[in-house]
Structure formats: C-alpha cells, structure tokens
Amino acid sequence: MSESASSFIVKSQLKARDLEHRKKINFNIGKYNATVPVGKEQFSDVLLAREKAKQVKWKAIEHLDKYLEQFDIETSKRGTKVLWAETAEQALEHVGRICKEKNCRTLVKSKSMVTEEIHLNKFLEKEGIESVETDLGEYIQQLDDEPPYHIVTPAMHKSKEDVAKLFAEKLGTDPAATPEQLTLVAREKLRQKYVQAEVGVTGANFIISDIGGIAVTENEGNARLSCAWPKTHIVIAGIEKVLPSISDLALFWPLLSTFGTGQKVTVYNSIITGPKQANETDGPEEMYVILLDNGRTNLLANAAAREALYCIRCGACLNACPVYKNIGGHTYETTYSGPIGSVITPHLKDMDEYKHLSYASSLCGNCTEVCAVRINLHELLLENRRESVLVGSAGIAERIAWKAWKKASLSRSMMNMSNGKVKNWVVNKMFKSWTRSRSDLNFSQKTFNQMWEEFRSDL
Q1: pLDDT in the model for residue 413
Q2: Nearest CA to 313 among 259, 380, 365?
Q3: What SS3 class is residue 292?
Q4: Are 284 and 79 contacting, i.e. CB atoms less than 8 angstroms apart?
Q5: CATH annotation of 42-294
Q6: N or C: which end of the chain has fewer CB within 10 A?
Q7: Which run of H or of E encompasses 6?
Q8: CB 263: neighbour CB atoms within 10 A?
Q9: Hey, which residues does 242 pair with through a beta bridge?
C-alpha cells in the first residue's frame, strides 16, 4: 500500500467520525442544494444544455492541438506572450523569470486551482515574493495555512465562528465580528496589496480559441483587479480549458454558474484578449499566458479516460458525493478532490501512488447524474480500477482474492456447493479488508437454482 493510501485511510476514518465537521459541510451543501434547482430554471431543457456542452468539449478535446495553436496565434496578435509548460516545474520557472525581470516583491492572485496544482505560493515564498490570495475564501485559507477544501468554495468546512476566530488571531479583529464586518476588514487589507503588487496572476475558466482570449468568471471582482491593476498580468491555465468559439460562452457561463453556485450567472464575467492597447486607458502593460500540460496529455492519450478533460470545475460532483460529504476535501491530499479528483489524479500524478482514490467511491452514480457536462464519472472510476490492475498496481493478495471471486461467481456449480451461511462466513471472515468499513455481506440462504425449482413446482 502506498504512503498516500495509508494516510488517506487513517484521515478518512478520523474525519468520518467528526460529527462537527459533518454538520458544517452538510449545512453549506444544503444551501447549495436549495439554490441549484432555481438556477436550472433558466434552461428550457437543462439535460439538452448539458449534452450540448459535452459535445462542444468533445470537439475541443478531440482537436485540442488545432485550437491551442489557433489561440496562440490570435492572442499573440494583440501582444500577449504565450509560454508552454510541460510540467509544473517549467510553469514555475516561467513565473519566476517574469517576476525577476519585473523586480516583483508583491504578487496578487485570484482564485485558481491550477496555481494550487503547481504549488505557486510555496514557490514564490522561497523566491522572497509575497503572494496574496485575493478571493475571500482563498484568503481565509491562506491565513490558516491550509489548501482549498473545495474546488469552488475553498473554505466550505469553516463556520462563520471559525472565520471570526481566525481573523481575531491573525488580524486582531473582534472575535465577535459579523461576516459583514470581517469582509470589510479583508477588503481593506487586500486593496492595499493591489496598489503594491507588480504582478497579478489569474487562472482561466475558459480559453477562447477563435478570438485568442481568456474568460474569467467570479463573484467578488478580485480577478478583474488582479489582472488590470498590476503592470504585468500572468495567466496560468490547463490546456484542457479550451472552447472553440466565443459564442460557446453563452452556454458555458450560465451552466458553470448554475452547477457551481446555483446562480443564473456570476456577478463578474470578463473576457481578456491581451495587454493594454495604444488606444486604451487601463489594463496591464504586459500579459503572459502559460499553457500547462502537467499530465493532461496522459489523459488525452487515453481514449477510455479522455472524457475527464471535459470537466469545467463546477464542483457539483463533490457536493453530490456521499464519500466527499463524509470525509471532506483535505482527506484526499490532492489538489482536486471528490469524484473528479479521484478520476484525474492517478493520471496527472502516479497511478500506483493514487489508485486508492478510485476505490474511495460507492459507485452510486450521483456524480455522473449531476455533472454539468455529463461526464460518466462512475464509469471512469471503474476504468481507473481496471487500469491499476493491468499496470500491476494491485497487490498479490488482492489479485488472488478477485480471481477467486470471479471464478466462483462464474461457476454455477461452485455457487451451489454451499448454503448462505458458509458463503457469509467465507466473505465476511476471510476477506476482512472488505468488511472493515462496510456492513457484512448477507447471501441468500437458498441458491438461485433452489428458488427456481421451488418457483417452477408452484406453477
């Protein structure tokens, strides 16, 4: 068993017993569940909208090379410098070089999961550069020296009392301050950083190929300030973020908003096509776009798992997952948690080290049911399990156990050899790892053949 798997098992067992944690996350997810149906009302046929979005992403991913090249050409026309990064280390090297050229001492950054993926803040800290999270949820997590808990709502696991206590400890505020008061304190602190920062960093919700632009959607306006106020704007985006056309945003922006937060559309939606032009009065003087691979081409090359690249990071699958709701985001110890994280992490990192995540699922299919772009997540989890066995990641005991199970299950004579009591004993006593965190299996006391004969005799 890998170190990651061992840590995951211990932490998940502890967190599953934490009733206070469960209370907080279920409260916040409950509010999400109440608003999403309202957001869906804007679609005359939400299923059709999701299917259309899936087809657009299929087109984008199947022709990814073409659309990335088109984006590079179009955005370069307006002065944007496009940089390619095969690994996280290459992306960090690009950022470090740019910051050094600009004599950067303070950097402001909007919410971006891809910068969490490459551990940008830790890198900048080593370089002596202050990196400030400007999204309120991310700012809270940064103050608490914690990674994001959730793809969309980074501090979902914290109550307002937790945040008040944290602000009191870190910023000297009143421990009894209200959420409104705490927000004003954060706003005042962050506004100073916008003025000081030499560089601003954002992610990209979408890369728009035909116009050479990036689309950013947010609710606080901090991304707009991060990309417009500093003299240098750096975009870091995964290569799978591509949309073929600007017209696709009419579908994807409301879809992301509805499935991400329950809104019809988020408050701020920006399309950025380059640095400040000669006839413009504001914006950055220079703009860089770093296109990150970091394992994504592993998924692209895998025809069975490629569908995972359609993800628009709405977080709906996390909110629907019974496993996530019990063990929380930090237990996964990966950038991307929940069902989508369990699908993509073994491909982005290492199958042998992270294959356990694909088993951390009830396979109830709820993740697939709620996915904004209809990714068959539960099937991809099964595919990961299959691949982990094919590449030899399964242990000897596991392989023997499943071979025995398969042989017995496919043999009617073997299944008829014993009654339910014997089968229960074999499975529940011999395969202890299966029942350690599950209820005992309870086989029927009669075989199918016995019941069939009884049924025929009654006719």
Answers
A1: 82
A2: 259
A3: strand
A4: no
A5: 3.40.50.10420
A6: C
A7: helix 3-16
A8: 19
A9: 207
- What is the reported pLDDT for 444? 83
Question: If DSSP codes are grouped into helix, strand and coil, which group holds residue 242?
Answer: strand
CA dist 96 and 18 (Å) reads 41
pLDDT digits (tens, 9 = 90+) for 399-417: 787 788 888 889 888 778 7
DSSP output for 373-435? T---HHHHHHHHHHHHHHTT-S-HHHHHHHHHHHHHHT-HHHHTSS-HHHHHHIIIII-HHHH
CA atoms within 13 A on the CB side of 306: 15
pTM (2 d.p.): 0.90
**Residue from 376, 377, 379, 370 nearest 46 by CA:** 370
Q: Is 271 helix (H, G, I), strand (E, B) or coil?
A: strand
Question: In this predicted structure, what is the pLDDT of residue 394?
Answer: 72
Rounded CA separation 330/163 (Å): 18
Strand partners, 236: 290
Return the beta strands (E) in 65-128 as ranges: 81-85, 106-109
How far from the centroid of its chain's Cα atoms is residue 227's Cα?
23
Mind listing the pLDDT tens digit for each residue in 74-87?
999 999 999 999 99
Q: Looking at the DSSP assignment, which residues form a beta bridge with residue 286?
A: 232
Residue type at 98 in one-letter notation? I
Residue ranges per structural domain of the chain: 42-294, 400-457
Burial 207-239 (b: 16+ CB within 10 A, else e): bbbebbbbbbbbbbebbbbbbbbbbbbbbbbbb
**pLDDT of 324-342, one tens digit each?**
999 999 999 999 999 999 9
